[in-house]
Design brief:
Blueprint (H helix, E strand, L loop, with lengths): L1 E3 L8 E3 L10 E7 L14 H11 L3 E6 L2 E2 L6 H13 L3 E7 L8 H7 L4 E6 L13 E4 L3 E5 L3 E2 L6 E9 L1 H18 L15 E5 L11 E9 L11 H11 L3 E6 L13 H12 L3 E7 L8 H7 L5 E6 L14 E2 L3 E4 L3 E5 L5 H5 L3 E7 L1 H15 L4 E5 L6
Parallel strand pairs: 3-12, 4-6, 5-10, 6-7, 11-17, 14-15, 15-16
Antiparallel strand pairs: 1-2, 3-11, 4-8, 8-9, 9-11, 12-13, 13-20, 14-18, 16-21, 18-19, 19-20
Helix pairs in contact: 1-2, 5-6
Length: 402
């Protein structure tokens, strides 16, 4: 089986697992498992642990990009905030790029950083340009390593929400992500667009942490960055929606998809046919498709479309409801928030986009295409663990494919 990479949309076939170039980086999957649940795996480090490690090891620069910033006294994020400030005090250049949308809701941490002369913070009001929001979540350290994933800079994302991300050490991939950061940094002040760094359009081969890969699988993974929205990228060939469509169209046996929300019609009534049509085509080929979404989708205007998808016998959808914390209700928490897709246990996407039209056409998001059986197998296991957990209920009941 072969899949198509999407560099410059001049699609070149690459034999699965060929990894022609020597490894140029390392990769680990990273998670948050909500406290008090049976979710979580000993082979996946916790998000808070990885963020602390990265910040403590920073020597030159930390570039942090997030949707919003909110901490809570006694939470796991507060020590990370302290570490950021300590890094700035020891001479590390700290830049923070945050979305404008939730400043009125969560101003405290933004104001705290803004008041410091040793931290540079800018707010990106993407609505002025595209009508969307700055929704990407990543951290780059010293120009050679980064975290990218579903976790917001929110104390709840480190304790009470299921999150999934990657920790990558690779100068080539980090340069790519810094191009995006610098592009948006300039956009906040209407400055000239920076010239992108020189880079190869081929995927970068990384070695995945052997502890996260079953012994019978190779731990090499070819990695490529993809972004949204179209029309607002340092390199327009990296738009993520065609890459996701290509993965779905290349699937032959199975597709496993998880996201917070999957909404087929946006607030303006525009249909999100690009991914829906690709899934319908895959189902018509006999591909077994399983989708996990948060119970936030159990609302009028969303649930009806999900039920319509389950009318196809190849498609099964389950919703996940994380029980309340023993300490009481926590707003906007106790939910699954991971965003990824796995095809045929061979190729995957992991990113920051929910599956709604605006995330791909108007909002800033970032993701990675990950090709390699060991990585895809581990992501599929992550999916199966949640699918079979006690926290799910069927939109319409369907068993997992073998």
């Amino acid at each position: 089986m072969k899949f198509r990479w999407i560099p410059s949309l001049a699609l070149s076939l690459i034999a699965l697992g060929a990894c022609a170039s020597p490894p140029r980086g390392t990769l680990q999957l990273v998670e948050t498992a909500p406290v008090g649940t049976v979710l979580g795996s000993p082979d996946l480090p916790e998000t808070a642990e990885v963020w602390r490690h990265m910040i403590d090891g920073a020597r030159e620069s930390i570039d942090l990009c997030h949707f919003y910033l909110v901490s809570e006294r006694g939470g796991l994020l507060e020590p990370i905030v302290d570490r950021l400030e300590a890094a700035a005090l020891r001479g590390v250049q700290v830049r923070i790029l945050v979305g404008e949308k939730f400043y009125g809701t969560y101003p405290e941490l933004i104001d705290r950083f803004t008041a410091r002369s040793d931290i540079a913070l800018r707010r990106l009001n993407l609505a002025e340009h595209t009508g969307g929001v700055q929704h990407a979540k990543y951290m780059v350290v010293d120009g050679h390593e980064f975290y990218l994933g579903s976790a917001n800079f929110d104390w709840r994302a480190l304790e009470h929400i299921q999150e999934l991300g990657v920790y990558v050490q690779s100068r080539a991939l980090t340069r790519d992500l810094l191009d995006l950061f610098d592009y948006d940094w300039a956009l906040t002040a209407n400055e000239p667009k920076p010239v992108p760094r020189a880079r190869s359009h081929e995927p970068v081969t990384c070695t995945m942490d052997r502890r996260q890969v079953r012994e019978r699988f190779r731990n090499l993974v070819d990695v490529q960055a993809v972004y949204s929205p179209q029309g607002w990228l340092p390199d327009e060939s990296q738009w993520d929606l065609p890459a996701l469509q290509a993965i779905i169209d290349g699937a032959e046996r199975t597709l496993f998809i998880q996201c917070l929300t999957f909404d087929l019609v946006d607030r303006e009534g525009r249909h999100f046919e690009e991914l829906e049509d690709a899934l319908v085509r895959a189902a018509a080929r006999g591909v077994q498709i399983r989708i996990l979404v948060a119970d936030w989708c159990d609302r009028e205007g969303v649930i009806e479309d999900l039920r319509s998808l389950t009318e196809l016998p190849e498609i099964g959808i389950r919703m996940v409801s994380i029980p309340e914390h023993s300490g009481g209700h926590i707003p906007f928490a106790r939910v699954v928030h991971a965003k990824y897709m796995v095809a045929d246990r061979e190729i995957a996407w992991l990113g920051t986009s929910n599956w709604e039209r605006g995330y791909f056409f108007a909002s800033r998001n970032a993701g990675l295409i990950l090709q390699g059986e060991g990585c895809a197998d581990r992501l599929e296991h992550f999916f199966r663990t949640t699918w079979s957990s006690p926290y799910v209920h069927d939109v319409l009941p369907e068993p997992l494919p073998e």
